[in-house]
């Protein structure tokens, strides 16, 4: 039957007809991105695709150009649930359809426990309520377009080092109130069609094998009836994961759930055939739902496409600008006006100004359909002003960890950007000698080639790729430094001279999901006007690493890759000196600094919050010679800013995707009045971070969540530490006042376990231009010892965000009334001393319940988590006899 017919198939009948072999094949993927099809029963295969900041499609290597969204931390900074829903529908669901993908592997809504976490940029916030509500909007938007979401990584995946093995030791209160809460809210308000388990363990058990969390919490407590899949290669057993409730193992390569192993497990009674059928049913149900909601994908030709209409471009630019946070603006130096630039000279400095800084690294990476650098965005905006402005530029300080890719520096013989590749099989499976080409002169427009499983059919298990192109000619003789990284082995030749040997021996590194080498570097003098021939020979067999004692020459069946970078050689002193010279002569300096996907990536954690290289020194020195320095920072999570008090303006731009430069310019030049708020606390010192000292794995791989409930701003309140910039903080080019907080009397129904309360206030634009403001409502639960409380054994954070609303486009002098509703989540805490009824066990188990305490609740409303920014205060009371316990959603 065609896929459209499967939308109406009877799943009970399909399950009843499944052979054991078919059921086993259904519960593991096929290849990297597909589920198993059962043609005789009309069951189609569906395709999944990585997110969360865009839809990549099948291929890491030579992927289909895509719309790259701002990072999730940037999306969280908008505090705009309607905007996120629109992004989900118009930019993500529509893009998934162009990729012929029925399932988006997103959103990520883990908690930002420590900004050094390698994937911190992929999650929305340090606050569980904030993260959960943005995630719910994301899910609603995508799924309203007929595309399944896969919310991830469930749960406690808050760091990357040792991610397959470390054990997150989390108290039951912190697990429920902090780390599970975003998922719980997304489930309550948006019902994702699928979940993805995290790689790590929680309290001793890997998530893919954890029945207490997968079955007990997700399915029984929350009532989830969709599919649970593993992260890629995140299954570590056959029987444990199947019995725990994991429906689908991904991917289908190198899988545990082979026909042989699962059949043997059934035969040994490690697994019941009925359990395998239960898992297969969930796969069938998801496939059917995708057929019903987005069946046109499955009825199509399966070809990936790109389409970039003017509405898409405008929305990408808009959401990027809406996520930018204005952190400092002394004396109203921003926004720039046309009168600001009459007969002026502007110096643009910084290592991020011209680099392609699109997003963090790892599975979030994709090929952008276009990209505007900060430098180009600012220059284009200056041109639009029509003023005669002289712009000068200096890199000032490098920000890369690996040498920048050469995507725009290598040309083919016919002048196209890129090079040509020829693929060779080896003469025999055990030989390193190449045979005749399998595929010749493939055009390749990227110098970071991560093949995953995307290489020509017919290659032997060991294979070689030879890449050749020509370096753009230099205007002068110029010494260049090149860098070569490989998951496999590689050599770089320039004009037939070996410049880098990463072939004979290697140093193991963290690149390419931990399977790559360290970058090896070499120098070559580019001659004036000469197009030097550059070639790389790559083989998918890695070399020995004698320094580490690793002499294995493994064939890279998964994740073979090679990366070539390069840059002109300049001494750090020369770079800073050049920038200082330009700054001294300029009327205005715009410094664009930050980090990139080298530093902030899946696979490993950042080693420091400090800006790379001499970036801090660069800002210090230009600020010494010019008082008009505007700093733009790019990072998916906080960076330290020891120079913050020396410059008049700071703009935090996160990772902004395709429209980076245009969005930054829109804010700097006042086309967009900034309204975003920090989704993360920016500390003054790394030692101030809540998990400092117990973020790294210790004691046999255990990671102790010793800060417990005091994550993010809650820690700063608790310890009375002043951050550099508080969670929820952000400036505007106008001003606002909040007044008239009114709290309704709580409506409480102990029988139905419900609570509701309405808070209203007025917001007035007291400035001179139209702007938007985020209203943030924080609740303080009754503390031990407070009057009329039954909460004596449970201390709570001083304040907890429980609602927020964005007041958009408020005109000068205008006032708007805002109403928000609080439900039982706003007044509940997890009581792990009280018994609960476990459905599966049919008995009382001391696992804990949610509790609403009697007593007085304080409410603060304002524009950030800083106590001085919480202008309005109120309270309400849960009377004696009105407290209650509850479970579920």
Write the layout of secondary structure elements.
Layout: H1 3-6, H2 11-17, H3 20-26, E1 48-50, H4 72-77, H5 81-98, E2 103-105, H6 128-144, E3 148-154, E4 167-169, H7 172-179, H8 181-190, E5 194-197, E6 201-202, E7 205-206, H9 211-221, E8 227-229, H10 239-244, H11 259-267, H12 273-298, H13 310-322, E9 325-329, E10 345-349, H14 374-385, E11 390-394, E12 410-411, E13 419-426, E14 434-444, E15 448-450, E16 463-471, E17 478-487, E18 489-494, E19 497-502, H15 511-514, E20 520-526, E21 533-539, E22 561-568, H16 572-585, E23 588-594, H17 615-625, E24 629-634, E25 649-652, H18 660-668, E26 702-704, H19 713-719, E27 736-743, E28 747-749, E29 754-765, E30 771-780, E31 800-810, E32 815-822, E33 828-831, E34 836-838, E35 843-845, E36 849-852, E37 855-862, E38 872-878, E39 884-886
Parallel strand pairs: 1-2, 2-3, 3-5, 4-6, 4-26, 5-8, 10-11, 10-23, 23-24, 24-25
Antiparallel strand pairs: 6-7, 9-25, 12-16, 13-14, 13-16, 15-22, 16-21, 17-20, 17-22, 18-19, 18-21, 27-29, 28-29, 29-32, 30-31, 30-37, 33-36, 34-35, 36-39, 37-38
Helix pairs in contact: 3-12, 5-6, 5-13, 6-8, 13-18, 14-18, 16-17
Structural class estimated from helices and strands:
alpha/beta
The biggest beta sheet reads:
7 strands, antiparallel
Q: Identify the CATH homologous superfamily of the largest domain.
A: Glycoside hydrolase, family 3, N-terminal domain
**What is the count of β-strands?**
39
Question: Under the CATH scheme, which architecture of the largest domain would be assigned?
Answer: Alpha-Beta Barrel
What is the CATH level 1 assignment of the largest domain?
Alpha Beta
What gap, in angstroms, lies between the N and C termini? Answer: 39 Å
Contiguous helical run count? 19
CATH topology of the largest domain: TIM Barrel
